[in-house]
């Protein structure tokens, strides 16, 4: 989705955005306002709907277009989110009105009213801040199968006028100051008031991990992998060990009567948070560096969450985007720095990551210092690190097993700093295996939403990460093994076309998808794109109505991968857009390989 940001704002400009005045470029249909939809226009709508993965959403959009005599024109833009939601850009003309650019977000599960309610509340509670910084819902549809389709405003005047924060920062001379300004605005401009009270650590962590869905319950995203290790989640031992290192089991801190509730209570400051502030939901202008930032996708907005949640969530999800390309020799140092970004940094870490870590931390510290509650704020931040890191261990469709394990050890580091004592003389630690999360653990991506905490911080040097690098190699081998066979449901639908599908999977597992520009990407993916076309000829073309079940899902995903490459190679694509396409292709690779695991 889309927004804009910087250090100063023009109220006139943003009033224009809120009214959705968007500069559009042709060619557009020859029909005049009020004319019936022509066959040519209907073909544009069909072409756009072919990109929609969900058949239920495509049918609902088609019905909406018919009711309103509307036309969808493909804007050749797609969002790079951090969930399974599909996000597409379109220019829409309805009932003879002026064409309007909108972001169409498709969520196929959950409460269909959730998105509308959250947006409405955010605008009602903070109208001035909302007008300057928040995207607005233009239209909304409920899906009969559950979930919703929302049309949201395009900030910045066009789809390519803004960038995700981690992509926009390298173009700025004041990267740290930009991040600090944005975080300060969230903590003070958005939160002109807040409420604080003592809370128990165990109760609070349970709340953070159980909303909006209980991740700890059977079949929950955390239970599915953690319950495989006896004494980790169920009847948890307080201390865990790997390679001789001891640290607190973060699951032992969770719940009523847990170790967390035996510790001192913490002073929790609550207020307004975005709730899902990953880099894709915080956008800055691509060219004008004076326009204020924009927040998009407010489905998890809350007016009573721990204030440290958004800054920590932004940092850890930025790490999640960068982890696969970082020097593995610095993984231990990165964990220590994530807990305390005032520590020394590695120069080879991505500059946007370093700026986000330092800028968000400075803003939080400045707010706490001004109110003389630095210690509670630091504890609140530490508890957010525990909760968000555990949530990320359940992201099997976004992160590799070794990356998810890395976040578990980060949670363990942070948890250890909360406990002011060591193990008892007869207390046996739980010894965990080197491969904590195997490749074949199948977990549905769970929506995330959060809160956070405060209290005394123990000054302890966190233990080093043991086995994470080994798990990287083990995870790579397991990932390869997991894709040796096609799922039976797909094989049944595509037989006898298993050959092209197997060849495509083989190339997809090993192809480089992190190219710096279009030329390198074209060279690296030449064989993949050839095999992709062959596989699509077996599965179908991925268009609207392209088959039920897993085969239909595979066709849609392969069709989106093809579109992603086409957009990266189209004339005028910038290197930034190519890199964004690479990240989206990597995400699609995870989903496609997930069909075979």
Strand order of the largest sheet: 1-2-3-5-4
Task: Catalogue the unreliable spans.
Answer: 1-33, 441-497, 541-550
* Number of distinct beta strands: 14
| Count of individual helical segments | 22
The percent range for strand residues is: 5-15%
Radius of gyration: 24 Å
Helices, strands, pairings?
Blueprint: H1 11-18, H2 39-49, H3 55-67, E1 71-78, E2 86-93, E3 100-107, H4 114-125, H5 127-133, E4 137-142, E5 148-153, E6 162-164, H6 165-168, H7 175-189, E7 195-199, H8 201-210, H9 223-226, E8 239-242, E9 245-248, H10 259-262, E10 266-273, E11 282-285, E12 294-295, E13 302-306, H11 309-322, H12 331-339, H13 351-370, H14 374-392, H15 401-418, E14 430-431, H16 468-482, H17 488-494, H18 498-510, H19 518-524, H20 526-539, H21 549-569, H22 575-594
Parallel strand pairs: 8-14
Antiparallel strand pairs: 1-2, 2-3, 3-5, 4-5, 6-11, 7-10, 8-9, 10-13, 11-12
Helix pairs in contact: 4-5, 7-13, 8-14, 11-13, 11-14, 12-15, 13-14, 14-15, 15-16, 17-21, 18-20, 20-21, 21-22
Quick structural overview:
The chain has 597 residues and is of the alpha+beta class. It is 44% helix and 12% strand.
